[in-house]
Design a protein that fits this description.
single chain, alpha+beta, 5 helices, 4 strands, 47% helix, globular, binds heme C
């Protein structure tokens, strides 16, 4: 083997060809399917609670749904499904939702695809990646787009009083100024996997 590596080095300086890193497998359809299901469950539960709170107490009351219920729903769906589900974005309201490198790259890809006219309904990204501990992890993402009801709290003209309430909870809020149809963020799903 070392002779071959040296040979390759001599021929073309292709150091990468000598890498001992094995190629990662493709994600399984079962994982992709389960990730989509977990994200849809979180989306549906969140939407139901958000709409109910908006109707009952207006946007001020609905902020509590986003700040308290969103993480709780994420935990519940994660516990039930065995897949860890969360939301992330390039511009976040809550720093805790800030993307890691893999998520940031995915968000950039979605952003570029949207800008070039691709349909968000077909956008999905999945990969098996190596973890820092040397294990492997299944990762999956799907875009979250701005819809009309979202503009109340993430739009270009958020009511002043509401903006103040948001700022008191989230002093580092970067999640306003979005228009309907823009990329607001993404659902992100992950699960540790055993490689054979
Ligand atoms: C009543 C106000 C309100 C409405 C309406 C609202 N959000 Fe949010 N949103 C929030 C708050 C508050 C957070 C921070 C939640 C947290 O602490 O995790 C948030 C967080 C998010 C995040 C996570 C990333 C981040 O910025 O921290 C996404 C993605 C998101 N919202 C998308 C949407 C979409 C899409 C809609 C419309 C379907 C929507 N939101 C409607 C208040 C709102």
């Amino acid at each position: 083997m070392w002779q071959r590596c040296i040979g390759i080095l001599l021929v073309g300086g292709l150091l990468a060809a000598c890498s001992t890193e094995p190629r990662m497998p493709e994600p399984s359809f079962d994982d992709i399917d389960a990730a989509g299901k977990a994200a849809r469950e979180m989306q549906a539960a969140l939407k139901d609670e958000l709409m109910a709170a908006m109707q009952a107490g207006g946007p001020e009351a609905a902020i509590a749904v986003c700040s308290e219920r969103a993480p709780a729903i994420a935990r519940q769906v994660s516990d039930q499904s065995g897949y860890e589900v969360s939301r992330t974005a390039l511009r976040t309201r809550n720093d805790a939702n800030a993307p890691d490198a893999w998520e940031a790259e995915g968000l950039e890809i979605f952003e570029a695809a949207l800008a070039s006219g691709a349909s968000p309904s077909v956008m999905e990204r999945s990969e098996i990646v190596r973890t820092e501990e040397g294990g492997a992890e299944f990762r999956w993402m799907k875009p979250i787009l701005m819809d009309e009801p979202c503009t109340v709290c993430h739009g270009t003209q958020v009511n002043e009083g509401l903006q103040a309430s948001i700022a008191s909870l989230y002093p580092d809020d970067e999640a306003t100024g979005f228009e309907v149809g823009q990329l607001r963020g993404a659902f992100s799903v992950r699960k540790v996997v055993e490689l054979e």
